[in-house]
Amino acid sequence: MKIQLIVFLLTLLGYTNFAQPSPFDQNFVDSITTRLSTYPDDIAKVNNLVKLASMYLPINPALTVKYAKEGTVIAEKINYPIGKINCLGQTAFFYAISGEWVKAAIDINEAMPLCEKYSPINLIGLYQLMFINASTKGDNDAIKYALNALHHPDFPSLLPIQKWVTYMQLGRAYIYLNQLDSANYYANLLTGYVEKYSAIVPDLADNSNIVFGQLAFKAKKYTEAIKFFGLASDYISLTKVYDALHQRDSLIHYALKGLEKGNTASTPHAIIEGSKILAQTYSLSNPIEANKYWMIYSDAKDSLYNNNKLKQLEELNLNIQKTEFDRQKSETANRNRLMLLCLLGFLAFFSIVSFLLWRNNRFKQKANLKLETTLKELKATQAQLIQSEKLASLGELTAGIAHEIQNPLNFVNNFSELSVDLVKDLK
């Protein structure tokens, strides 16, 4: 019940742990595989194919690839990007651990933009896959991918069981870089996971014990190292411990077991390490056996680092660079187009504002001209009024004077008439 609850919570978070297989459930496998061909191509079918692919990874990798590829095709067909991400993650994991790092990189690169667009939290799983792929290839800077996962914004929101892969990868990376204080820090984080979650994640205990064993080996605590490597069935690491202890028989025994396990699981590094140790061990005592293992070592190394893979990697890097260049070119073109549109918009706005200002200025000029004309007319009218008032005043003055003159004249006229009458009377 507890396992089912944790799996349910993982599903709710939308996070898929690409870097580890799922526990094998025979009842689920039996019920699904018999009816899978009759199911319609939908989301449920893709999810079931992903689950089957994850379960078969430790026991039948060919079926993992088969089911994951089928799921990828269906997810593409029904436009289900999350399902496609999960399917690509399963194939990329298998390719990474089996040394097909070019194929793994192709699937990771195909899933990356889908994660960025539809499920950013699953970028954490892709970073974990990139760490595995880089480690298989022998990159010294593989730790940067584990750090990318650790520093992803969604990492703190993961459940503890979802964080252990990153902690384990950081522990192994710091051991490889001989930064043992940092390695011990992450090893301490892993200690509580082994007891709590080993039943849920099959490889959790093995991978954690390998980290514990490597730290013990670095500290020359060989008894502890043998215990942890034995719990993890890490035969190649056991071989190195027995080499340090100068126990030749145990060294050969575990080197043979490690070589057999590497062939069964198709893990090239185990084959390379096991055959190299056996070749060096037999070099003095049994040249024929030494030569046999040197041949195995050479073939395994050529298989991992052959010219064809290097050429494919170079082409992949060129394609990635071209894609990035095209993306930047497209972004630059879009940015320039946006800037041009903004500039045109600004010019249009400026033109409209300029037109409005010109129109307003023209209106003001006309208004001013009209005001000036009106003012001139007003001044002329005012001048006319003043002139009229002056003439009116002069008329009144003249009338007054005439009146004043008229009165004496009337008196004189009247007196003259009287005088005339008197003269007549006197005559």
Describe this structure in words.
- The protein has helices spanning 2-13, 26-33, 43-56, 61-77, 81-97, 101-118, 123-137, 143-150, 160-176, 180-197, 204-218, 222-231, 235-244, 248-265, 268-282, 287-304, 307-426.
- Helix content is 82%, strand content 0%.
- The model is unreliable at 1-13 (pLDDT under 50).
- It contains 17 helices and no strands.
- Helix 3 (43-56) runs parallel beside helix 5 (81-97), helix 10 (180-197) runs antiparallel to helix 11 and helix 15 runs antiparallel to helix 16.
- The protein is mostly helical.
Name the descriptors.
427 residues; mainly alpha; disordered N terminus; 17 helices; rod-shaped
Count of β-strands: 0
Q: Secondary-structure element sequence?
A: HHHHHHHHHHHHHHHHH
Poorly predicted runs: 1-13
Global outline: rod-shaped
Structural class: mainly alpha
The separation of the N and C termini measures 171 Å
Summarize the SSE layout with pairings.
Elements: H1 2-13, H2 26-33, H3 43-56, H4 61-77, H5 81-97, H6 101-118, H7 123-137, H8 143-150, H9 160-176, H10 180-197, H11 204-218, H12 222-231, H13 235-244, H14 248-265, H15 268-282, H16 287-304, H17 307-426
Helix pairs in contact: 3-4, 3-5, 4-5, 5-6, 5-7, 6-7, 6-17, 7-8, 8-9, 9-10, 9-11, 10-11, 11-12, 12-13, 13-14, 14-15, 15-16
Summarize the structure in short.
The protein is mainly α and about 425 residues long. The protein has 17 helices and no strands.
